[in-house]
Specification:
Blueprint: H1 14-37, E1 40-47, E2 50-58, E3 89-95, H2 101-109, E4 114-116, H3 130-141, E5 157-159, E6 161-163, H4 164-168, H5 172-181, E7 184-190, H6 194-210, H7 224-231, H8 242-259, E8 265-269, H9 270-275, H10 278-286, H11 313-320, H12 327-330
Parallel strand pairs: 3-5, 3-6, 3-7, 4-5, 7-8
Antiparallel strand pairs: 1-2
Bound molecules: 2-acetamido-2-deoxy-beta-D-glucopyranose (6 copies).
One 2-acetamido-2-deoxy-beta-D-glucopyranose binds next to α3.
Length: about 325
């Protein structure tokens, strides 16, 4: 029975009803807000399978809409001790090789409350099938993942870097469910100028075999001298497949955004982080950590104008001139 269906004869009560409804709504919203900020999270402390104590964490100063995104993980391998009530947010950096994600990750890891564990799915047996993927994610988000990026037990944001060619696209449906169920926030990090990305990719592939730095292959460097050595190599780009290659890369980026559109996410471009200091503050706010100045020891490898970095530049110029990719020819990473 619908209460509103019998109201016709009682129109005179309408203002009173409206006032009542308004009151109930406001009171309800207030109670809900109050309740949410007082929420307690039970933590069972077990010893030999017996519950010996129970602990509760209170949530303070977190806006109600963000509460689903905070977690109180219980690592299997250690106790979080005085930080067991420090809320933790889960994130993943979704990117492609040679898009600045290595540099971006060192910036994040310079923050005392962020742990980003690198390309955990570069190891193929972790991405054999969806079960191994979920097992790996569970271990990471329960704070049991040990790497050089692992902070103390006071970590407030934990994540890793997932390249689009490391299983995330193949199993996107199940992974989307996992992300939404566990409230994992995504940071998409792409490079606008995919021609520069290709130069970096080819140079890095070359160094994999050439090992130009005293016989070791390096994807990232920490000094200008090392960068100079690696930048000496000028790749020849296959002009025949260049346009197909570009449209494939752009399509892959667009697909990933479409697949994971329903997650909480932000989209960042490498060029914007290079040019805009506030981009990094925005990321820290998104991760719910106090905003700090982030630093990295990494040095950019390819800093020269593009024509000096490609052997068959004239051919590449002709191939891209007049196409939708023309702007890549002029564009510089640094606006300065
Ligand atoms: C960040 O880490 C520091 C040092 O471990 C800790 O004292 C602080 O409470 C943490 N802050 C947050 C917001 O988690
Ligand atoms: C997934 O891969 C693991 C490790 O290779 C294997 O043990 C397991 O049986 C596989 N599971 C499924 C459902 O295929
Ligand atoms: C290679 O090794 C030599 C001697 O060990 C050192 O002086 C030089 O700086 C190294 N070069 C690079 C590019 O690491
Ligand atoms: C694009 O070109 C790069 C470098 O030659 C190559 O590694 C990559 O596989 C190509 N991708 C496609 C989809 O053709
Ligand atoms: C810098 O980044 C911030 C946050 O991402 C954005 O709001 C702002 O418009 C950017 N400024 C410029 C000049 O691009
Ligand atoms: C680039 O294309 C324009 C017309 O679209 C043409 O006028 C110009 O000569 C081309 N540049 C080169 C270097 O081929």
């Amino acid at each position: 029975m619908n209460v509103y269906s019998i109201k016709t004869s009682q129109c005179s009560h309408l203002p009173l009803r409206l006032a009542l409804i308004l009151f109930v709504t406001i009171f309800g919203a207030y109670t809900c807000y109050f309740y949410l900020n007082q929420i307690t999270i039970g933590e069972k402390i077990m010893l030999f399978g017996t519950k010996i104590a129970e602990m509760y964490c209170e949530i303070h100063d977190i806006p109600p809409e963000e509460i689903p995104h905070v977690h109180f993980p219980l690592p299997k391998t250690y106790r979080r001790d005085e930080c067991s009530c420090t809320p933790v947010r889960f994130f993943a950096i979704v990117s492609m090789q040679r898009s600045g994600s290595g540099w971006f990750e060192t910036l994040l890891n310079s923050h005392p409350n962020i742990s980003s564990h690198g390309e955990i799915f570069s190891v193929t047996n972790r991405r054999n099938n969806i079960s191994t993927i979920i097992k790996t994610l569970d271990k990471l988000y329960s704070l049991d993942w040990l790497s050089s990026a692992a902070k103390n037990e006071c970590v407030a944001a934990v994540g890793f870097k997932w390249m689009l060619n490391q299983g995330i696209m193949d199993h996107h449906r199940e992974i989307l469910d996992y992300f939404n169920l566990n409230h994992v926030s995504l940071i998409f990090l792409f490079r606008r100028n995919i021609l520069r990305r290709l130069v970096s990719l080819l140079a890095n592939n070359y160094d994999r075999y050439a090992k130009q730095l005293n016989g070791t292959h390096k994807s990232h460097v920490h000094s200008r001298e090392e960068a100079e050595v690696l930048a000496q190599f000028k790749p020849t780009i296959n002009a025949q497949v260049l346009l197909t290659n570009f449209s494939f890369v752009e399509q892959t980026m667009a697909d990933s955004l479409r697949f994971f559109d329903s997650t909480r996410h932000i989209v960042l471009y490498y060029e914007d982080i290079v040019n805009n200091q506030s981009a990094l503050s925005h990321v820290q706010e998104f991760l719910g950590v106090p905003v700090k100045r982030l630093v990295s020891r990494q040095v950019k490898i390819h800093t020269r104008p593009l024509p000096d970095q490609v052997t068959n530049w004239d051919e590449i110029f002709k191939t891209l001139n007049g196409t939708q990719y023309e702007h890549f020819l002029q564009h510089s990473d640094y606006s300065r």
